[in-house]
Each structure stands twice: as structure tokens, then as C-alpha cells.
Design brief:
Structural class: alpha/beta
Strand content: 35-45%
Largest sheet: 4 strands, mixed
CATH topology of the largest domain: 2,3-Dihydroxybiphenyl 1,2-Dioxygenase, domain 1
CATH class of the largest domain: Alpha Beta
Pfam families: Glyoxalase (PF00903)
Radius of gyration: 17 Å
Distance between the termini: 33 Å
Protein name: PhnB protein
Strand order of the largest sheet: 1-4-3-2
InterPro entries: Glyas_Bleomycin-R_OHBP_Dase, Glyas_Fos-R_dOase_dom, PhnB-like
CATH architecture of the largest domain: Roll
CATH superfamily of the largest domain: 2,3-Dihydroxybiphenyl 1,2-Dioxygenase, domain 1
Number of domains: 2
């Protein structure tokens, strides 16, 4: 297998809800493992997600978990998850779902560089950028 780079998101107790939402947005196969399945049955973390992975037909991999209380908290929005390409219908479909109940900071519209671009922070606090390149050919 070759190397790959993919986002790994941390959540404050709502990883299952968030990852199931992303499964609705992108489709694909979602695998969820709880802390309880990993030896923490009977603890407050038992039903929380220790590791989740969504693999989509488009080749996206999105991972995430509930932040364990004993782990240092990751803070700051020093990242965005970026979706880009020239399949306008697919990308607009993702945008519509991600932007529902989100804070839209840049509406999805044609920009000065010629592409259609938008930015939003979804209801789980994850910032997204969508860029639809003009098809050439």
C-alpha cells in the first residue's frame, strides 16, 4: 500500500453523530470502534468512539474519535478540510449537506480566480473549503 494523508478529527463526545453525518454527506463505509470494545467497558467512555474511519467511493478517507479525558486537548482551528476538483455536481452536493446548519463564511460562488469556492464551519465545528475548478477540454 502506498502512503496517504487524511484528516483525523477530534470531537468532544459527539464523534459518532459527526461521523454518521459525514457518512450521509459522502457515502461510503463507516467503521466505528468504541472505548468499551477496547477494554474500557463499564467506564463513562465505554460508548464513546475510540476510532472511526469513513472510506468513500471517491477515494476520501476521514477519521475521527472522541477526545479521551486523559489526553491533552487539541485546540484551535488551525486547519480546514478541503475538497476540490472539477465534478461540480458532486462537490455542490457535498457543499449543500455540509453547509446545512453551518456557519458559512464564504458562500459557494464564482471567485476572482475563476473557480467556484466556498467556506463553512459545520455544526460540529469542523471548517471546510470547497473549490470547484472550471472544467477545460
Amino acid at each position: 500500500m502506498s502512503s496517504r494523508l487524511n484528516p483525523y478529527l477530534s470531537f468532544d463526545g459527539n464523534a459518532r453523530e459527526a461521523l454518521e453525518f459525514y457518512e450521509q454527506v459522502f457515502g461510503g463505509t463507516l467503521l466505528l470502534n468504541t472505548y468499551g470494545e477496547s477494554g474500557m467497558a463499564g467506564t463513562p467512555m465505554a460508548d464513546k468512539i475510540m476510532h472511526g474511519m469513513l472510506e468513500t467511493a471517491s477515494g476520501y478517507t476521514l477519521m475521527g474519535a472522541d477526545q479521551h479525558p486523559d489526553m491533552p486537548q487539541q485546540s484551535g482551528a488551525n486547519f480546514s478540510v478541503s475538497l476540490s476538483g472539477d465534478d461540480a455536481d458532486e462537490l455542490r452536493g457535498y457543499w449543500e449537506k455540509l453547509a446545512a446548519n453551518a456557519t458559512v463564511t464564504v458562500p459557494l460562488e464564482k471567485q476572482m480566480w475563476g473557480d467556484v469556492f466556498g467556506m463553512c464551519t459545520d455544526r460540529f465545528g469542523v471548517p471546510w473549503m470547497v473549490n470547484i475548478s472550471e472544467q477545460t477540454g
